[in-house]
Fold these 2 entries.
Entry 1:
Amino acid sequence: MAEASSNLRTPLILGDKKPIEVSDDICGILERKPTQLWWAAFGVSLFVLIVGAIATAYQVSTGIGTWGLNKSVGWAFDITNFVFWIGIGHAGTLISAILFLFRQRWRTSVNRAAEAMTIIAVLCAAIFPLIHMGRPWLAFWPLPYPNFRGPLWVNFRSPLVWDIFAISTYFIISSVFWYVGLIPDLATIRDRAKEGIRKKIMGILSLGWDGSYRTWVRYETVYLLLAGLATPLVVSVHTIVSMDFATSIIPGWHTTIFPPYFVAGAVFSGFAMVLLLIPIARKVMNLEDYFTMRHIDAMCKIILLTGSIVGLAYLTEFFTAAYSGSVYEQFVFMNRAFGPYAWAYWIMVSCNVISPQLMWFKRVRSNLYIVFALTIVVNIGMWFERFVIIVTSLHRDYLPSSWADYTPTIIELLTLAGTFGLFFTLFLLFCRFLPVIAMGEVKGILSYGRSKRARNVSKTCDEPVGMTPALEGEEA
Amino acid sequence: MSAHGHENDTPQVHGLIAEFDDPDTLLTATTKAHEAGYRAMDAYAPFPVHGLAEAMGVRKTYVSLVTLIGGFTGALTGFGMQYFASVMHYPYSIGGKQLNSWPAFMPITFELGILFAAFAALGSMLLFNGLPQHYHPIFNAKRFERASSDGFFLCIERTDAQYDTAQTKVFLEGLGPVEVSEVIE
């Protein structure tokens, strides 16, 4: 008997919960009044958002001359922020789609929040190209649409047009994936709600879901298909973002390493952002049994892996420059490390390459405060990575007479702050109105009934019955 | 689904529903019901219970096929649009590339393929599942609000060839349910 019990791995959800307790825990958050802590966080976020909105209104009405750009550095803060936010979004898709395909069952309690983060981050990212257009009301111009300007089409060979297709497809697919995942949980909220506005809204949003098994079969197929579609999509999105740079002839940008390097960096920064949000959500909403230390440990390992890939990419760039024999390429990299923006370069290296190496130690991974601090460090580092790539490559171009420096203006800083305000405002609203944990999925991996199955394990170990996959757990 | 009663005012019965305590009992019950020859039935659970589809004898779904077709349609649309624009409608030499510079058309071809495939997947799932549905008699079942939380139900519908109010009830009661009751349409 003891032998049979030892076959079972540590449960993914702690507290030996029953399905009804999961519903109570998760829906309870939505049914109670918001806490004072929530109001405080919401108030601060909303304030920052409003400040950002004022800055945005000012620069749109005045023109982007309010930015610190000049004729050499024509891309700086806005594109840095755009790539930064898109990258953050990628961890959500990685958790919800790629880990799903790899049957990493621990993802079930994290994926809902991570997907919400993806959608919000893509929204934040989309703001920057819109403002950069100068006249955001003409933002439809890069779309291929029938027009009366003679036969006039967009240039389909331009990576900026690819970008528009990639980002909008990514936003739509992430939203569809998220919504499909939400349907059964919305039905749970509907069924728990008393007659009233909540029941009405949830009744419409849950589409009359009844949990019939014929429905579940197709639902699961579609969920798997969407995961399979989102996986190559997320890789393609950051690949195309990197091509905005790689297809140009600027030294430091014109390199084939960019697509894999950008994708790894995106996952790295995205996981850092998830790991920043999860400990907060866990504390504020008492979800310690769902977001366990095991999740945090697993995500730390992914940060360590992708951080090391990013470090390797930095080295490879230097090697390529040295080996290329191109003086321009060599100059750009020497200038990055020792030129006027060397401070930014070394912030990037210490935050992205050195700090995640601490996560080799279990003591570090199991200390929430250190992990939390490291995720902030990584986010700062990844922001600086994009800044370094963009600004250092542009500010010293082929002609020394056109060399120039770039400093962001207060307007640009406030716009960046404003997107953080938008991000946290929307995330807090999500935590209030929608279940932060995919209840339907979590119930499938509960440990309840394990003791009963442990007794039968010797008899039925070859023949999976019922929810046996729940026993499997996985190697994090 | 049977038609509503039009001869008299007595409420029509949708079927008999049994509530179970846990997914394992539901799975065993469904297997037994299928073995006993019942076909017009459905199980209701708050989460996917693995093995239930096989137990109910549900056939493979066509959702994946529709998704594949959607994906190819999207890719063809994407490439077709770029080919039409760049070769036929607005031939313009850019960067010395040939008009049909197909490698540069691949990103948009790919993105539209994914987009259409996802729409096909979502659309066909909703269509085949009959969602959104405004009304379903199953929601009249006793304590059915628990089906989305922690209730496990098996409903044998009146349209089944073997359906017999008394016998089916006895059969369901033999499967270890919490309760068996009638569902009114």
Note: Chain B touches chain A through 66 residues (CB under 8 Å).
Entry 2:
Amino acid sequence: MFMFEKALAGSRRYWIWIGVLLSVILVGFLAYVREREVGLAITGLSRDVPWGLDISQFAFCVGLGASAVVVVLPYYLHDWKAFGKITLLGEILGMVAVFMAMLFIFVCMGQPMRLLNVILYPHPRSLIFWDLLVLSGYLLLNAVITVTLVSAQREGVAPPGWIKPVILLSLPWAISIHTVTAFLFSGLAGRSYWATPLLAPRFLASAFTSGSALLILVILLLRWLRVFDVDPEAVPKLARIVTYCMLINLFFVLVEVFTAFYGRIPEHMEHFEYLFAGLNGSYNFARYMWLSVFLALASLLVLLVPGWRRNPRLLPLACAFAFVSVWLDKGLAWIVGGFTPSPLGAVTPYTPTWPEWSIVLGIWAVGILMVTVFYKIVFSVEAAANAEFVSSALPACGAAHPGKAA
Amino acid sequence: MQLSGGSLLALLGREAATALGSSPRPDGGQGQAASAARQYAMVIDSRKCRQRPGCTKCLDACHQAHNVPYIEDPGRKVDWIWEAPAQDVFSGQQSPYIQITLKNEPVPVLCNHCEYPPCVRVCPTGATWKRETDGIVMMDWHRCIGCKYCIVACPYGARSFNFLDPRPYIKHLNAEFPTRREGVVEKCNFCAERLAEGKLPACVEACPENAMIFGDITDFHSEISKLLRARDTIRRKPELGTQPNVFYIV
């Protein structure tokens, strides 16, 4: 496989990490095998809550996928040189996140072996058709981009000219994947929590918040591990992007709350009430929702004060807070909130079961493994290219000396 | 032919829906021209239904006829027709002055075979579709990929998912009708298989009070059309624009 040998040579630390990830994947895989034997009865899903953790993780991961835009756009359209070294990392992160999103869809299907029916009997009225189209297109675009850029680096040549339009195409494409994913929910008249035109913009804002926060954390981790470092300007710039996106995200949420509660629209209020205060004695999501609000505000506090934002200890904390805040809202509660109360007014509590958590963790481990391996290839190629540059420069110097001596 | 305002609208609506690309499949057995398309519908007289408290004859007849599994766990239950309290069935159409007795009275609920079914719109494979010849919202259990999007889209909770293999839970197997497997969605089919034999739906036939009236609402002279003109009826969640074809006398 393409430069795959680079991923097979690593330190002891690297192999321990790979081993840990593989065992988490194995547990998730076994849980999935069990789910295929028993059926979705193994999950906490029910008649009233037919989608759960898997689909909310799907929405969250599509968001992470789309957020590659936060580095690719400033670098290619606005020539922000500081992002030069991290655009590739952002693209890989986005590509892997989209792959994870597809896995999350796959594991929640009742008849996964019939997946190809979506292609054999295409029904373009269904948003799932379009989602499959844009997600696989995005995966392909990013695969082509990353492979081309890394190959060029290995050969020590400039990337081919045709890659630039492909990269530019990936920008609106990234917006499209999260827009179509939002339409999947906002096009349903009967689900008032989701049926809001604000959903696609809100999804994008929360996606860019979590995506840029994650990228900062990844960069800081790589710096701490001493495997990679970036332009000193890159992290402060990304931190500013997290700040703006988090503010926009919160603004959008408050706009929704205003419409529901000032307008006193019962079917809009009841979902918020369920999530934040509980309905009919069922309030198992309230603590997570309030935790999400607290984390969002705490991260904003750090991010808004310039001195704190530059503090190398506080910044990762703020980014972790922002990431977890969005994860709790979008990756956990978002789907359940839309289902509760049900069309017949029933409040059916949903608690993900251990097999569900195992499958979700397994897919996250697949994603982290892919990112590890791809980053490893990128760093190895870069290191080799640098070494080659040095060694090819040295004989030239050496050749100059004899000439001088003669 | 004389058309009432309602059925003219329905007719135009169907034309528009066809033009917009809903993909109804012709029913092989019927051989009806598209111009002769019918729309089957049902009127449920909940007043008559209340005459027999505790009666579940329509439910039993349906579930027996269609091999619907009997699963007790409410989260895993499969229902084609079931009973729910009136206040939940007609949520949004309530008033504090409505008779107290009516609020918790059970009302039979089933698939509404909507004029504009959201489930059909969202299905990625066409495993559920609105049949052109008679307006029944059908299902193909062999094509369903179990994505559950139709369950999510249905504003009436009329669709059930087979969370586990339903076959061990079938009380009395009806060899005339297929069983389903784990991982697919199912729902009421207005007894398409019985209609093809010229019979009435099982629930309609089983009702001792004749509380369910079934027929073609595009036929001006049908019993159901006359009843709909004579009596005031309501539908579930009319504000969503799905145009349900199950009407209730409350």
Note: Confidence is low (pLDDT under 50) at residues 396-406 of chain A.
